[in-house]
Specification:
Helices cover 82% and strands 0% of the residues. By secondary structure, the chain is mostly helical. The longest helix has 35 residues. It starts with a helix and ends with a helix.
């Protein structure tokens, strides 16, 4: 039996949280602020068609172009952050840039439609380009804080999800009424809300920037030790090697494809729900009520789902999530037209199911990266976790065409006396397409995503022990030389 095999059999994986208890809660606070910065993007398509005078097809075209650019940005963000090995600066600067982009997207000046489309596209990119870097930096910082301990990791990722749900409780209850107040005053309601929310988000980002300094300092010291012992060439990894190494993994492809198609369904729901409440339910302000209810349900679920997800395992969480959501949207087809209460119940069930998977955050990709580090000696964990960015970017790219498809199939015409001639047709197309997305995601996870989770946990401990031993050996060597 090899020495490595013996070592792996003797690994003890810590099962209790070992980080200071205030750290996850400070992380929670930062997550709340980050949600404020980006929340108004929920209304970007509704704003474009209803207030900016942009047609559904124009909306689809301009957002598709912006989202292709955003997808390209996401492909390089992980590699850039990986090469720099510094994460805190992104957690502070990127929310500022994203806030500026959001303000531009919702400004809606009285200019020709062609220029307005360009302005919205630039604003959209300003919102989303920085988010690529924030996601990588945030996930990488979680690893620095949590170490190899899986309980620390899921505590940090679940606090991130819980913070988003808490923010949504406030934002869904507050935003549309607040926008309406400003609109009634003859002011730019969407733009003003974006500015207010941005100030809140930037304030919380400054706090997390300060408290993460010791963790990043220790990380940079470890890198410096590795470079002294192994040399610069041995520790640096080219962009090409990053992509080549990650994309030869079948499990990585399973996650990218499965997460993307699952996100197609999520984004279509988010894009179409305002139209549902305005035309099928007959009251657009019910969007705020539904969002508030869903956020309360989501916050409750986000508290209990980490333990359930830990018990059933990551792969089973993916399968359960997508199966339940597919069934929910099949039921929606025959039950939800003109019945907002029914829709709210179904949406709450889907919300709980999604949280079973999403509370794990980037831990799916991190497991694969830990195994890769163990086998090759190349630490690509930030880059692997950056691949989590691809799913929402691809889904953003799909949501415009998907929504345009549903609206056009429903006969949507903002200038007609009856904007949607038959709301059941709208609900049928919406529910069927969403269910198909979730069903495809289920099959993808089932066929392609297969990772030995227990082995990944043990290897994470081995990787941490190896890094610690190398650092201690280097320190001893320096002392002997002195």
């Amino acid at each position: 039996m090899s020495e490595n095999k013996k070592q792996e059999e003797q690994v003890v994986v810590e099962t209790s949280m070992t980080i200071p208890r205030q750290i996850p809660w400070l992380w929670f606070m930062n997550g709340v602020g980050g949600s404020f910065v980006t929340f108004m993007n929920t209304y970007i398509m509704f704003f474009m068609t209803e207030y900016a005078g942009i047609t559904a097809m124009q909306m689809s075209a301009v957002l598709s172009a912006a989202r292709i650019a955003d997808l390209i940005c996401s492909l390089f963000a992980g590699a850039i952050v990986q090469k720099g090995n510094k994460y805190r600066i992104y957690l502070l600067i990127c929310p500022i840039v994203s806030s500026i982009g959001g303000s531009l997207a919702f400004f809606n000046p009285n200019i020709p439609i062609g220029i307005k489309l360009v302005t919205v596209a630039i604003g959209y990119c300003g919102i989303h380009f920085p988010m690529n870097f924030i996601t990588v930096a945030r996930n990488s910082t979680i690893v620095l804080i949590a170490g190899a301990n899986p309980t620390n990791r899921i505590t940090m990722t679940s606090r991130q999800i819980q913070s988003q749900q808490m923010a949504l409780i406030v934002l869904n209850a507050l935003t549309l009424p607040l926008i309406q107040v400003f609109l009634d005053m003859g002011m730019k309601g969407y733009f003003i809300c974006q500015v207010i929310y941005s100030i809140i988000g930037i304030s919380t980002a400054s706090v997390i920037f300060r408290i993460t300094k010791p963790y990043e300092d220790a990380h940079l010291a470890n890198i410096e030790t590795s470079r002294k012992s192994a040399g610069q060439a041995a520790t640096d990894i080219s962009f090409a090697d990053m992509y080549k190494t990650a994309l030869k993994e079948k499990a990585v492809w399973g996650l990218i494809i499965g997460d993307s198609v699952r996100s197609f369904g999520q984004q279509l729901v988010a894009a179409a729900v305002t139209y549902y409440f305005r035309y099928s339910a007959g009251n657009v302000l019910l969007t705020s009520l539904q969002g508030t209810i869903a956020s309360f349900v989501g916050m409750t679920a986000a508290v209990v789902m980490p333990e359930i997800s830990r018990r059933v395992g990551k792969r089973n969480s993916c399968l359960l999530t997508t199966a339940i959501c597919a069934i929910v949207y099949i039921i929606l087809i025959v039950t939800a037209d003109g019945r907002p209460v029914v829709y709210m119940v179904l949406a709450a069930i889907a919300q709980c199911a999604l949280l079973l998977q999403t509370v794990q955050g980037a831990n799916f990709y991190l497991d694969i990266a830990e195994i890769q580090l163990h086998d090759s000696g190349k630490d690509l964990r930030p880059f692997y976790m950056s691949l989590q960015n691809l799913a929402p970017k691809l889904s953003f790219l799909s949501s415009g065409p998907s929504l345009a498809f549903v609206l056009n199939r429903s006969g949507y015409n903002i200038n007609a006396p009856v904007v949607i001639p038959d709301t059941q047709v709208f609900v049928t197309n919406w529910g069927a397409l969403t269910a198909v997305f979730y069903a495809i995601a289920f099959v993808t996870y089932f066929l392609l995503y297969r990772v030995d989770e227990q082995r990944a946990r043990e290897i994470a401990v081995i990787n941490a022990d190896r890094a610690r031993s190398a650092r201690e050996a280097a320190e001893e060597k320096e002392k002997d030389q002195d």
